[in-house]
Amino acid sequence: MARVVPKKLASELSVFSGNAHPRLAEAICRELNVRLSDCFVGRFSEGEIRVKINENVRGKDVFVVQPTCPPPNDNLMELLILIDAIRRASAKRITAVVPYYGYARQDRKDQPRVPITAKLVANLITTAGADRVITMDLHAGQIQGFFDIPLDHLYAINVMAQHVKRKRLKPLVVVSPDVGGIKMARAYAKRLGAGLAIVDKRRTSPEATEVMHILGEVNGCVCLLVDDLIATGSSLMEAARALHQQGAKAIYGAITHAVLSGNAWEHIDRSPLTELIVTDTIPLPKDKRHPKLTVLSVAPLLGEAIRRIHYSQSISSLFDGVHG
After folding, report:
1. Is the dihedral of CA 201, 180, 204, 254 positive or negative?
2. Distance between CA atoms of 251 and 156, rounded to whole angstroms?
3. I want to staple 181 with a disulfide (CB 3.0 to 4.6 A). Which of 7, 95, 176, 323 is the partner?
4. Under 8 Å CB-to-CB from 119, ≥6 apart: which residues?
């Protein structure tokens, strides 16, 4: 039986946003039927970040919505300073809602004398005063273990799968652009009732790859490339071209985080992709929308997670279908 929650608890929830993605924070607030809480996040004359919480948060359950997307350094510092300000204002609990967790690509020592930035950022968020973290589609699952506080790892698969199902693409094959993405691709294939293929590639630089083989049958099929993020897009587009050469009938991309840095837009222009489906975990400038680009909102998913955490309810049902 669902837990009956006193209405007065709604007045104990506050949602704040930095400058990273206020549109997403406002959309989450609409899902929760609450207003976005008032704070000032600006700069001193020399560029230091200045924060002031403009309302009482004493004893409240506070959620700070701030993806660490480009510019990552500014947005990360805003998040840390917001958390510190709210902690010093005597909030009961602070949850960092970080839809896109930046600095995640360095999650292990794969070369001599390199940092593990994913762990460093986890330490910073915890030290700043966060009691809990909500994030989406981490670059590597083991990053969850870098936190010594509870972390809720949500997935965009349900949002993406609903959109793809409405297109009735057949015969559909879900393609992982590298060996590391097999688990995600398998979950999509199970949810969509599709086949599975893998692009075997060799990384020639941090931003470029070379496709070696396609493992699986894609000739005459509609291919759905799935991944957690797209930065310059060179790796994804190389995989799309390889699928096209192997006889794929049409190629779609389903990527959670649209970083879209460097010459990503040129790569999308020249690619054989029919459609690139992304979410709004990262804000996209309105003047940079592309005819091939479709943006799906994760505000309902994040709003439901916040609601359940606030009311101490289980959020395990939000993970259904991920571990396929």
Report:
1. positive
2. 19
3. 176
4. 107, 143, 146
pLDDT at 173: 97
What separation in angstroms does the CA of 221 have from each of 84, 171, 172, 190, 194?
A: 52, 5, 6, 17, 10
Q: What are phi and psi of 223, to 5 degrees?
A: -105, 135
Chain-centre distance for alpha carbon 308: 19
C-alpha 278 chain-centroid distance: 10
pTM above 0.85, yes or no: yes
Q: Tell me the average pLDDT across 17-38.
A: 98
* C-alpha–C-alpha distance, residues 198 and 191, integer Å: 17
From the candidates 165, 167, 201, 288, which is the catalytic residue?
201
State yes or no: is 201 an active-site residue. Answer: yes
Give 218-233 pLDDT, tens digit per residue: 999 999 999 999 999 9
Residue in 164, 137, 297 with CA at minimum distance from that of residue 230: 137
Q: Is the pLDDT of residue 99 over 70?
A: yes
Is the distance from CB of 106 to CB of 115 less than 8 angstroms?
yes
Which tokens in the block code for residue 195? 């086949």
Count of residues for the chain? Answer: 324
Q: Answer for the pair 216, 196: CB distance below 8 angstroms, yes or no.
A: yes
Q: Give the CA diameter of the chain.
A: 61
- d(C-alpha 299, C-alpha 37), whole Å: 17
Band the pLDDT of 5: cuts 50, 70, 90: very low
* Residue 212: per-residue pLDDT: 66
